[in-house]
Amino acid sequence: MKALVLREFKSVFCSPAGAFFALAFLLITGVMLWAFSGSYNLIDGGYADLNRFFGLAPVLFAVLIPALTMRLFSEEKKNKTLDILKTRPVKASEIYFSKFLATVIFVLVTLLPTTVYACSLYQLANPVGNIDLDSITASYISLILIASVFISIGLFGSVITKNQVVALIVSVFLCLFSFYGFDLLSGFFLSGKIQASVASFGLAGHYKLMQRGAIEIRDLAVVINYLVLFVLLAVLYLRQNKPRLLIALASAVLILNIVFFFTLNSRLDFTADKRYTLNDYTKDILERVGDGSLLKVNVYLTGDLNYGFQRLKDATTDLLSDFNRFADDNIDIRYINPYESGKSLDETFKSFASKGMTGIILNEVDREGKASRKMIYPYAQVTNGRDTLVVSLLKNVAGNTAEENLNASVESLEFEFIDAIRLLSQENPKTIAFIEGHDELSRTYVYDAEELLSKYYSVDRGEIGNDIRILDEFAAIIIAGPLSKYTEAEKYIIDQYIMNGGKVLWLVDGVYYSHRDLALTGQSATMKNDVNLDDLLFTYGVRINPDLIQDRQCVSTYLITDEKTQAGTLLPSFFQPLLISSPNHPVTKNIRDVKAGFASSVDVVNNSPAVKKTILLTSSANAHLMQVPEIIDFDVERVQDIPDYFNQPFVPVAVSLEGTFASAFTNRLIPDSIEGGDKTIGRSKETKMIIVSSSDIISNEVQGQGQNSRILPMGYDRISQQQYGNRDFIVNAVNWLTDEDGLMALRTKQQRLYLLNKKEAFESRDMYMVLNIGLPVLFMAFLMGGIYFYRKRKYEK
């Protein structure tokens, strides 16, 4: 066997077919990836990965490998040398596997110099070395497996005919059909489930999933089935009149498939950040979908996209494909081009905008400086036949680069889709409540918050009263902007609600000022907003201070200077800061700055190990704390003239607390008016709360009067016409408080961003082009030439 393998290996290496295969493959890949501009160019893509190479290589292999293998059996059959071999004490299977192994080794040697692509990206990455080598290694393994299948197909084509041309045509057809054919056939069916089932017989989908760097048993099983099938067919053709062998091999294949069928759907995720490993909560939700309910997902991010948005689309496709595996193919996924309806651009824009999907203008400049503009719709719709929810695929976080926003978008895909699927499938939503009775924000000014939260919860409102159990039915309560004092009985009920595991979103202002005076005269007196909650919050670990934050990072206000003409001027509104969100907490990750108004500083006042404390929102690095009582006004010039006025960096405004809390009523008498309470609970169950020192965050504005009035969204700034992150903050805060299953953990999923150093890449483009095209070709030319001349010299002696 060893002698046969060496014989075949030398034959392949020294053959014109081998030289053609190696040089054609390396030249085409080198030129496509490093020289020609377009969708395959690695430098134009801007990312330090080899996805484009692994997408191009199997297409070339499907054509070039049959050209390499077409002569291996056909030529020997034509020259009668195969018959001579059969007369020797050599089995037909040994003859076959010697050719198979020799060809596999030759393909591996051909792939070896392509590792220079990875080395080049390693040097061009930003920073140097920021490349996922484990994932690339797994992708090479996937490519080698596919190449092995094509080799088995090529050898089968060569076995069945003496004509090399016929062998080439048959092998190319079988390679392309096994790779793409079933995907094409699936298009003839309307049912998404049938489409997925038919496409699963092909190699393209399985290879695409494996070449990402995540190899799953199911994908491996399909590849091995193809490999075993064509190996067996070729060996059986060589060993004719062997029915026992046929039965034995068929039984082996059947047993192999039974083993794969009952093997758990396990996956080896080789990526550094485990980006293709689904959360357990996600799997639970998808298994419920797989119980019989059919979901339909329409994705509108299609068409000719740049590499960044193509990456977002591919990530969406991969994720939904993974979803379908756990949902038993009960998700009907369709990719719809918004412009295929035949409507004009304006009609398409209005139609999508009316459904909550506003188009985004994508400006692009190619390598030659040619600019282009197009409108894209990075959205998906998820429907269960009754209700439809829009999923935004694109995150737009102020201050992030385009690449960082696209990476944040990819990170959040699993959460966004699972959140939508969960909402469509929930039957008995949890109940939350807004507390009233203390001059809290009226319903008009939290209308937007109620509307948003009603998608997730049954929203109630009411006063606390004296019944100790009045809050027990609520998953969370919201205290939004109280101005009058809570009684001791009300505080006791809230405290015991927390001790029983209740969750609270506190939005309590530290300072009271007059909206009316500020609007009419441009100034207002201030005083501490005493609502009698300080002792509760202090016991839990937080103090809201009686001060006001002024911040250079703020919105603007329009100050009228002429009452007759309504002329005015734009001034920075230092008391309305744009708060910075924590990048690592589920509530605030990947949300825009949060617009606040008249916020106070928050202190963490104890270091109890039983309570985990996290700062969620802070001022910018240039803030000032104004103590009360003090007159507030819009005298911008006076503030700006004071040196080092904004000298307080990153002042906390919102804090999350989670753990077990001590009761504020330990060793205190139960208030007399309490009904139903006989014993104070001194230590809480595991629970959570969020304390925010500005109720303006949850408040929406009302534009106009009477019937002409309309509600503006939370966080919307009329001057700049920008929507800040208030809506996301409030919804995420309540979801985090009530989350008991792990949904919000999906928001903390992180993916590393593998970018190229664009400056270095473009400046060194020519050098890397020559290196990556020339070095692999020279390597194979010297190697094959060396072996050829060595053999020639050896046998000429």
Properties at a glance:
elongated; 25 helices; 10-stranded mixed sheet; alpha+beta; 4-stranded mixed sheet
In terms of topology, how is this protein built?
Blueprint: H1 2-13, H2 16-34, H3 42-45, H4 51-78, H5 81-87, H6 92-111, H7 115-124, E1 125-126, H8 133-159, H9 164-186, H10 192-199, H11 204-210, E2 214-216, H12 217-238, H13 243-262, E3 267-269, H14 280-289, E4 295-299, H15 307-326, E5 331-335, H16 345-354, E6 360-365, E7 371-376, E8 379-383, E9 388-392, H17 402-425, E10 431-435, H18 447-453, E11 458-462, E12 476-480, H19 488-499, E13 504-507, E14 511-513, H20 515-521, E15 523-524, E16 526-528, H21 534-540, E17 542-544, E18 547-551, E19 554-562, E20 567-581, E21 594-595, E22 602-604, E23 611-618, E24 623-627, E25 632-633, H22 636-641, E26 652-659, E27 687-692, E28 702-703, E29 710-711, E30 716-717, E31 722-723, H23 726-738, E32 755-756, H24 758-763, H25 765-796
Parallel strand pairs: 4-5, 10-11, 10-12, 12-13, 13-27
Antiparallel strand pairs: 1-32, 2-3, 4-8, 6-7, 8-9, 14-16, 15-25, 17-22, 18-24, 19-20, 20-21, 20-23, 23-26, 26-27, 28-29, 30-31
Helix pairs in contact: 1-6, 2-4, 2-6, 2-25, 4-8, 4-9, 6-8, 8-9, 8-12, 9-10, 11-12, 12-13, 14-17, 15-17, 18-23
